[in-house]
Amino acid sequence: MSLRIRTRATTTTAALTTATGTVVTAAALALSGVAPASASTPAAATASTTAAATVPWSASHATASAAGDRWLASGKLVLDGTLTNTGTGCYSVWTRFAHDFVVLPYTKHAEICGAGSVDFTATKSYTYTVTGTLRVCRGTTDTTDCGPGVSITHWPIG
Fold first, then answer.
1. Does position 43 have pLDDT exceeding 60, yes or no?
2. Which pTM was predicted?
3. What is the residue range of the signal peptide feature (predicted)?
């Protein structure tokens, strides 16, 4: 599995004036966590990056495993991961969500047959009344032979 780090770049300009003519003060920049740019510093040199709040997840079944990160972005839950198989069979990654006690059907996001790895990214509209699980299953057509489901909608405190 490759390590993925999601970053969000925030840039400032030396002129401290937005494209619409709004003047941005140093105090406003300080409140937003962005260091003000000096007139002698190029705008590209003042870019700062902050890591998005990601939560790792992992699941497995028989010779296959899946792992990655999840985060919230613009009202969507984003899952980014890799499905890996060390054996000869076929395996797949599935999610299932419930919204206000309404359980939705399973959705397949990745499949692999034989040894190797495949990367995948999935998104789902998300509110705090949505719960979801992710499972790795043998085969590519259904969820009858799967490993234990892992929660992809619990959020650590801290």
1. no
2. 0.68
3. 1-39
